[in-house]
Amino acid sequence: METKKKKTFIFDKKNYQILGIAIAVIALGFILMAGGGSEDPTVFNPEIFSFRRIRLAPSLVLLGFGIAIYSILVKSEK
Fold first, then answer.
1. Max CA pair span of the chain
2. What's the structural domain count of the chain?
3. Prediction pTM value
4. If exposure means fewest CB atoms within 10 Å of the residue's CB, which of 6, 13, 36, 43 is most exposed?
């Protein structure tokens, strides 16, 4: 007698939605951090020290990781 086991996911749909938001926030942080290089390596480009690259982008990445941890720890409705 074969009994079929129902395959279930570890998390609910809500958890995966929150995790998707977290991944999007992390990706946005890395996108904001990109760029600012110079075509000529002997020329200094002060744009690499802008508010966006030094404060905003790393803050978004850390916020995204916090949201990801929250999505793992939030209690399922089951």
1. 75
2. 1
3. 0.81
4. 6
Q: Are 75 and 12 in contact (CB under 8 A)?
A: no
Tokens of 7: 């395959």
CA–CA–CA angle 50, 53, 55 (5° rounding):
90
Instruction: Decide if 63 is inside a domain.
Output: yes
Q: How many CA atoms lie within 13 A of 45 on its CB side?
A: 10
Structure tokens at 44: 């200094």
Is 28 inside any structural domain? yes
For 75, phi then psi, to 5°, come to -75, 140
Cβ neighbours of 59 (radius 10 Å): 12
Residue 60 lies in a domain: yes
Q: Enter the tokens of residue 15.
A: 């958890």
Per-residue pLDDT at 27 exceeds 90: yes
